[in-house]
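Supplementary Note 3. Input sequence used for the single-chain structure prediction.
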Amino acid sequence: MHTGSFIDGEWFAPKSTTKVTNLNPANTSEVLAEFPAATAADVQRAVEGAKRAFLEWREVPAPQRARVIWRATEIARARVEELATMLCREEGKILAEARGEINKGISVLEYYAGAGFRLQGRTLPAEGKNVFTYTIRRPLGVVGLITPWNFPWAIPVWKVAPALVAGNTCVLKPSEITPGTASLMVEIFQEAGLPAGCLQLVVGYGEEVGKAIVDHPDVHAISFTGSTETGRLVYSQAGKRGAKVTCELGGKNAVIALADADPDAVVAAVLNGAFGSTGQRCTATSRLLVHESLAGRITEALVEGARALKVGPGMDPTSTMGPIVDAQQFESVLGYMKLGKTEAECLIGGGKAAGLEQGYFVEPTVFAGVSPDARIFQEEIFGPALSICTIKTLDEALRYANSVRYGLTSSVYTRDVYEAMRFVEGVETGMVHVNEPTVGGEAQLPFGGIKATGIGDREMSEDGLNFFTEQKTVFVNFDEGAKRDFNR
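The predicted structure, written as discrete structure tokens, is reproduced below.
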């Protein structure tokens, strides 16, 4: 792993007295690496290099660009264990979850490698005689990609791959909490033969490096994933200068269990959704709205399941839930757990995990009797905390589910297709699951939400590719004499 930034095909150490310290959240005395922090001047150099590289990269036929992505896919597949180990050590996921994230990113690479052979326009009828009309898609230029810490491989991959295959060049700012995984990703693209300047990596802090990317007049699009508050600022600042912007922000996702739901399926889905990845994913299940006839049985099983989890370092193969990512998030989650004890009944957990003082470990926590007005029901916690609320009807469930500011994903468990489809139509989320957990996404399907969760285009799938292009409409008049009635 290189511990610097990457500009114009070369690794270098920025001339900065500030360091980005990469800690192991399972053992905060272990410094994994130190990166000299990039500066606004480094961003300027990165953008200038990306502009030069764009002039040649955009002329490379899309299938050839796709072959670079495919080579990166094969290299990543051969380095899964190395990537998963780095991800586990710097982000905290247990190793099995880290492997899962790496493989998800590989699926995204596979999808976009294929997309280079199907960059599609449309042919449409013209009003004029002997006029051929069609559309084509062209790259935007230099794009800025700002990614979070909770999926330090998958999210950069699903931004970088479509941007590159569409013909753009990229300036990537990964989270300063997880720069190691991003560094390995850039190594993979370099080994795959990506020309110098097409992917620039600047490791630094958002206040300087992120701001410099967002404000730069030669960065034609910004793709941001992170907090709602920061995302709105990014959208406002980049939008002022006319840049194209997409932001994927927070979530407060609910599973609804109706009276005819399969209790075992609900319990399995909620345990995975609430406590997998330590609850640190935007699609996490943070709310369960359960029919009163099933509430006792399901709640008891969830408490038993939470008690059976083994909290510990991700590299320990016996651990089933890892640490919180850093001190700031650790204190935030503990604060919500303390608050939850004043707003509802805490059935299990609610504090630091015992015997693991060397890391940012908290207990898996279940709150019952939670009011829809409670802060723990309304606000994103981003940790292993589940709020349970009972319901009598689907209409009540929809009202509670839709009461939050976010709208990323949701799920309903029922055997009644009528009720399932009523939920699909009525719930205010960008993604909906029926008899499935709230978590997960697939490369070929759009990913994103509504309300305070999403601004701009969806990510992944064809939508994620189209964001990094502009559409051009072409009129070809092949009439002898090129006549056209312009009064129509």
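The first helix runs from residue 40 to 57. Residues 5-249+453-473 form a domain with the Aldehyde Dehydrogenase; Chain A, domain 1 fold (CATH 3.40.605.10).
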